[in-house]
Amino acid sequence: MTYHPVVGKITFVPARVLVVDDAQEVSDLLVGTLGASGHETRVAGTGAAAEAAAREWLPDVVVLDLTLPDLDGFEVCRRLRTFSDAYVLMLSARGEEIDRVMGLTVGADDYMTKPFSPRELLARVDALMRRPRGRPDGAPAGEPLRRFGPLTLDPQAREVAVGGRPVETTKLEFDLLEVLTAHPRRVFSRDHLRELVWGGGWFGDDHAIDVHVSNVRRKLAAAGAADVVSTVRGVGYRLSPDLLAAGRTAQPAP
Amino acid sequence: MTTRDERLAEMVERLWVTNAHVAIARLDSVARGLEALAAGEPADVAGVVEQAHMLAGSLGMYGRPGSDLLKQTEAALHAGVDPATAAALAVEVRALSAGLERPPAS
Fold first, then answer.
1. Which is higher by pLDDT, A253 or A47?
2. pTM attached to this predicted model
3. What are A239-248's contacts with CB under 8 Å, separation 24+?
4. A114 with B60: Cβ contact below 8 A
């Protein structure tokens, strides 16, 4: 959380950003800028590489240049939209209205005309990450459902389900799962979890976190989802890589 | 300017030092193409347009001048540039390149 003198508190949400640009000096600058601000990045220099990386890496945001050596950015965006709901921020040195309209028509979420300042790029990516995605089941826009293999978590309704069947959780157990599924590849230390889940209301030792994690594991395993939370020895906890490999949208919503 | 902005500006300068040679090489390619067109010699116009397009996007992002000139060059090449205009643009591109190669005044 950062504090802006005019608008007050601003939530920073770290993102996985796929940078798609064939000009090395541009991709270096974008990666450096985003990485220095806490975002995780990967680069693709062609449309085909971008499509493959988006399927394999599941980015939150795709920063997509319009001019690529193999496919144009419009076509890449069209293809991404068939399997990904990542935010697409289209870049071009062409600032004509028709290009901006075309980009937004094929599913881009934002459009920036080069040259732009690194600060503006950061502001746009951060703004996208604060924007709620529409839910795939047609429910009103808000926080999207999170699906990992058989596990579904609905942040708005605060509901957890395994294979479509609801699982009862306590407030803290839900909050733990909420944090882990919000950043499914991140390893959280116990200190970090304590700060995110309990905030200022913490009155125990680290063992209590282990107990809550254990309860989460037990309840989800009983419902048919074993090993949802992995222990990373000497560090903390993360969502199970096996669950991630099963895919974010492998199961239908309950 | 905040500390975060200062760090960002420093990083951009470091990356420019690393990548300036790429921009200089692209500028040289554009200038050579324009000089060939000015002399009535064959040139890889599509390749020159591509280099000009990349530079139009990248130079300004590093806080360097030249994006407008490169956009103008790209547009002129698309429209079919005459030898006199190509020669004038080549001179400007060479001057831009020389300016970028000079270390910044301290």
1. A47
2. 0.64
3. A239/A148, A239/A180, A239/A181, A239/A184, A239/A185, A242/A149, A243/A148, A243/A149, A243/A151, A243/A184, A244/A148, A244/A184, A244/A185, A246/A148, A246/A149, A246/A150, A247/A148, A247/A149, A248/A58, A248/A146, A248/A147, A248/A148, A248/A184
4. yes
